[in-house]
Amino acid sequence: MRLRRMIAIWAAKFAEKASVHIFHRQGVTWAGKIALKICPTLLTELAAQVRGDIFIVCGTNGKTTTNNMLCAALEAEGMKVVCNHTGSNMLNGVAAAFALAAGIGGNLDADCACIEIDEASTRRVFPYFKPDYMVLTNLFRDQLDRYGEIDITMNILKEVMQSAPDMKVIVNGDDALSAFLAMDAGNPYITYGISEKVMDEKDSHEIREGRFCKKCGEPLHYNFYHYSQLGDYACTSCDFKRPEIQYDASDIQVGDQLSFTVEGRRITANYKGFYNVYNILAAYTAARSGGFALEHFNDMLAKFNPENGRMEQFVIRDTKIVLNLAKNPAGFNQNISAVMQDDTLKDLIIVINDNDQDGTDISWLWDVDFDRFKGANVNSITVSGIRCQDMRLRLKYVDIPSMLESDVEKAICERVENGCGNLYVLVNYTALFSTRNVLKRLEGKK
């Protein structure tokens, strides 16, 4: 069995290197597929070698940032951590994370594991190992043609939670859907959230997913919203309400950087986007729940680069560029809020694809508040990608003019040449890796 495991690990490492250096593609998924084909028990065997806790991160938005931040926080505490940094979060990607972290002798030297898992893929991953903690970031409508309605995702997650009854759930208590799921599943749970009103969302037309109580079906009353359905809620009919928050962020400051207080500590990070308060708070709560003192948490945040297209920064010929993923209405609306926090003149490129991993149904674009770009000091908007014409039509309906360039590289080069020097590139899922490669290549040119 060990020989087969060794061969699987060697093959995974070779496949990953060959994919990146020869085919210039992310080879993680392919590496995991090969490894499991050679040794079907590989994931179970390697997961069993993790000396401490295995954390998994699930939820619609924020998985990759939260997972990588949690990994960085544990590493700052001196831990050796297995992590799927690239965001390859289905079974093959999870298997690859363990295989690529293992030594050529077939063994894994790891204190902890931080593994992001696609919600629908948890059913395929959990038979291989049972995590100690699940971080549940939020539940929003996402890719209806792939995931179906939120109820389907909640049923899958409830099933896997109950298959691991000792697993503790780190849950966003401000999300009525996530909180109900944690309560309903019966696992021990730990809550994080924000108990004070921070943002003025009175003019927002966002789609609110959690308007009705999952326990009795009656409307929920909100004292305030943070964004989408996140906020302070209680059922108008039964006893379901926002749970008591154990890790509560207060005195929140949002602008060129984020800061808040939790457990009497002042946390500061050089990021934009109010949603990143939740990502940071989720990682903090998970690590503290795992027993870590987090004496170096602020130091970690000062060095942490989200990478992988999550508010990732580039500079090309004196043009500052921010690349960020925007793949569903809730996420895109928060991207708009983050762009609006920058009150200087800016150019935008919006890249929309409809490949299988994106979901071929792009009707979600009509649930995004694109009209808010009118007040964002925008110099220009360029639409690109496979469905650039659909994106241009969506903007036309809110009287926002746009330029069309289906080739992403040409669109970026044109704005670098003729733009204002401050560029935001917002992409959905399958455009992310290729656009990031373009930006890295252009950045490397003298």
Shape: globular
User: Class of the largest domain, according to the CATH hierarchy?
Assistant: Alpha Beta
* CATH topology assignment of the largest domain: UDP-N-acetylmuramoyl-L-alanine:D-glutamate ligase
Q: Calculate the mean pLDDT score and round it.
A: 92
Describe this structure in words.
- The protein is α/β, with parallel strands linked by helices and 446 residues long.
- The chain has 2 domains: 51-83 and 109-303, Mur-like, catalytic domain (UDP-N-acetylmuramoyl-L-alanine:D-glutamate ligase); 312-444, Mur ligase, C-terminal domain (Protein-Tyrosine Phosphatase, Chain A, Alpha-Beta Complex), CATH 3.90.190.
- It has 15 helices and 17 strands.
- The protein has a 9-stranded mixed beta sheet with strand order 2-3-1-4-5-6-9-10-11, sandwiched between helices. A 6-stranded mixed beta sheet has the order 12-13-17-14-15-16, sandwiched between helices.
- The protein is globular, with a radius of gyration of 22 Å.
List the helices and strands and how they pair.
Elements (H helix, E strand, L loop, with lengths): L1 H20 L6 H11 L3 H6 L6 E5 L4 H14 L4 E3 L7 H11 L10 E5 L5 H4 L7 E4 L7 H4 L2 H14 L4 E5 L3 H10 L3 E6 L25 E8 L2 E6 L11 E7 L4 E5 L2 E5 L5 H15 L7 H7 L8 E5 L2 E7 L3 H13 L4 E6 L26 E7 L3 H9 L6 E2 L3 H11 L3 E6 L1 H16 L2
Parallel strand pairs: 1-3, 1-4, 2-3, 4-5, 5-6, 6-9, 13-17, 14-15, 14-17, 15-16
Antiparallel strand pairs: 7-8, 9-10, 10-11, 12-13
Helix pairs in contact: 1-2, 2-5, 4-10, 4-11, 8-9
